[in-house]
Design goal:
The complex is a heterodimer of chains A (423) and B (121). Chain A is α/β, with parallel strands linked by helices. Chain A is 39% helix and 12% strand. Chain B is of the alpha/beta class and 121 residues long. In chain B, the strands form two sheets. Chain B has a four-stranded parallel sheet, covered by helices on one side. Chain B has a two-stranded antiparallel ribbon with strand order 5-6. In chain B, helix 1 links the parallel strand 2 and strand 3. Classes of the chains: A alpha/beta (423), B alpha/beta (121).
Chain lengths: 423, 121
């Protein structure tokens, strides 16, 4: 199969639209040939993950593009930075690394990217519509765009994201194509007690289980009675994309390409069907928890960046209360959401409880936590999965309510009733 | 040859300065990928893997080649951009799942100019 380039594509590749476009198009074409795409397609937006500093090569790449005159061709948002750009004093790492993070931020902003600095671009005002072809990087954003919005992005990563934004083109492959969006693996949950699914923390656990057992297939969850909220679907997807390579999932009756199980499967028989057990979910809970004692120094929420819905839940738990003085309590969110919190007066309430609000970045990969010797607690499957490797910290995965109760008590407090009732 | 028992996410799973596997969930945590032919079934996880592969190659801490049974575009892009920026090459090869089963850590890998790969003890 050969990649059929349009006359516009060939002009870009020939350098007639400038050297930056030429370089970006050369990379897009090499990718397109490798994934056996027949053609390139137009995209309507891009979300860039390359703006996170990983070493000098990340700057070399952006700097080369800027030197060659790069400008983005489609509306383009930026994923998290290595630091809170509005509150740089929160950063506890090497000052030189902080400078390089800032330098990288400037390079991407100078290419015309919007300084959104969030891993949750789907919470911004202009989010993609059903069927839109987009190039999004950042695994939780990809899985949300495909699964919950019904927009179409493949599992893009760094480097290609900005090339697509500069050319406005991407290979017509992977999850851009109808035939790759159907589920082939069913996760059956209809036999489990419906009351289990009254608890938000089941969703990241289910996601973690799906991620670690799906491989590269598209999974569908069947047997949930109610249409599930966006934040629950998001927590499921973020966990699945952390423990595995999931770029798209369906929840029959909840996600837009799965009005029914049959629709999700594209009217084909699934390759396999997995009956999820309570033990599977408990096993994931153990896997996302590396500390068994009651010692606690930190609570970290907001991975992916908290939405207003999630802040509303957190607010209901903390109003009129104060955290223990020896516990640090961080919540990460995008700068747009942080502004909204100020306007609603919620930011003051959160601060009065003792919350440190973190913008533009996230606490699981960058030096923000003041204490990594003692364990941290989180309601995020993604945070729980990555923080032990990234920060060398022990972690306890728990519900948002347990995170708050523990922050008040100054030690780990877990409500086990959800599990004991299921025995 | 370093044959990974489980897929590795380069980001959050590998230090691009030392080439050491740091993912505490990975069975081969602590092993170094530097100078090896790194073989695994497929890549995994984060969107940042391309940048980590690029940085790994820039630091000359990377494998000499990566062998997969399914193409991973994140890994491939790190390799493509390393060639664009630095003229450094780290081929990404695809072989069948069956062929991959025969690869073991410590094997010597022979790669011909067509991209065919064979392993001997």
């Amino acid at each position: 199969m050969t990649l059929d380039l349009s006359s516009d594509d060939l002009e870009m590749l020939d350098g007639r639209n400038g050297a930056a476009v030429e370089m970006a198009m050369r990379i897009i074409v090499r990718l397109g040939e490798t994934v056996n795409a027949k053609r390139l397609i137009d995209i309507s937006s891009a979300h860039i993950d390359s703006c996170l500093y990983h070493g000098l090569s990340t700057i070399d790449f952006a700097d080369r593009l800027v030197q060659l005159g790069a400008q983005v061709k489609v509306p383009t948002t930026l994923n998290v930075s290595s630091m809170d750009l509005l509150h740089p004093d929160l950063y506890r790492g090497d000052p030189e690394e902080a400078l390089r993070g800032r330098q990288l931020a400037d390079l991407y902003e100078s290419m015309g990217c919007k300084p959104t600095w969030t891993c949750a671009p789907y919470l911004l005002e202009e989010r993609p519509n059903f069927g839109d072809q987009i190039v999004w990087a950042e695994s939780n954003a990809i899985v949300f765009a495909n699964s919950v919005l019904g927009a179409r992005t493949d599992r893009y990563g760094d480097l290609i994201d900005i090339c697509a934004a500069i050319t406005g083109r991407t290979p017509d492959a992977g999850l851009h194509l109808d035939e790759n969006r159907h589920a082939s693996l069913v996760y059956e949950v209809g036999h489990l007690s419906p009351s289990l699914f009254d608890h938000d923390e089941i969703f990241p656990l289910l996601g973690a289980f799906i991620g670690s057992t799906t491989g590269t297939q598209v999974p569908v969850v069947d047997g949930l009675n109610h249409k599930q909220s966006e934040y629950r679907l998001r927590a499921l997807g973020a966990a699945a994309a952390s423990t595995g390579s999931v770029g798209m999932f369906h929840v029959a009756g909840s996600t837009p390409e799965a009005p029914t199980l049959e629709a999700a499967l594209g009217s084909k028989d699934p390759q396999d069907s997995i009956r999820v057990s309570v033990e599977d979910l408990q096993m994931m809970r153990s896997k996302l928890t590396s500390s068994t004692g009651t010692a606690l120094a930190t609570v970290a929420l907001g991975t992916p960046h908290y939405s207003i819905d999630e802040f509303a839940i957190l607010r209901s738990h903390i109003l009129g209360k104060h955290k223990h003085p020896e516990i640090d309590f961080y919540v990460s969110a995008g700068r747009d959401i942080l502004l909204e919190l100020e306007l609603r007066g919620w930011a003051d309430e959160l601060r009065s409880f003792g919350v440190s609000l973190v913008g533009d970045t996230c606490t699981y990969f960058t030096p923000i936590l003041s204490n990594t010797d003692k364990p941290a607690m989180t309601d995020s499957g993604k945070w729980a999965y990555y923080a032990p490797s990234n920060l060398g910290i022990d972690v306890i995965f728990a519900s948002t309510a347990d995170c708050v109760a523990s922050a008040i008590a100054g030690r780990v407090v877990l409500d086990e009733s959800i599990w004991t009732n299921e025995q | 040859m370093l044959r990974l028992d489980e897929p590795l996410s380069f980001w959050g799973g590998l230090d691009p300065e030392t080439g050491q596997i740091t993912d505490v969930h990975h069975p081969q945590v602590g092993a170094s990928v530097t100078g090896t032919v790194l073989a695994m079934e497929h890549g995994r996880g984060s969107s940042s893997s391309s940048s980590v592969v690029l940085e790994l190659i820039r630091n000359k801490a990377g494998p000499v080649a990566i062998v997969l049974s399914e193409m991973d575009t994140h890994i491939l892009l790190g390799s493509i951009v390393a060639e664009e920026l630095y003229g450094l090459s780290m081929p990404v090869l695809i072989t069948s799942k069956e062929n991959l089963q025969n690869f073991h850590s410590g094997n010597v890998a022979h790669i011909d100019s067509e991209g065919n790969i064979n392993c001997v003890n």
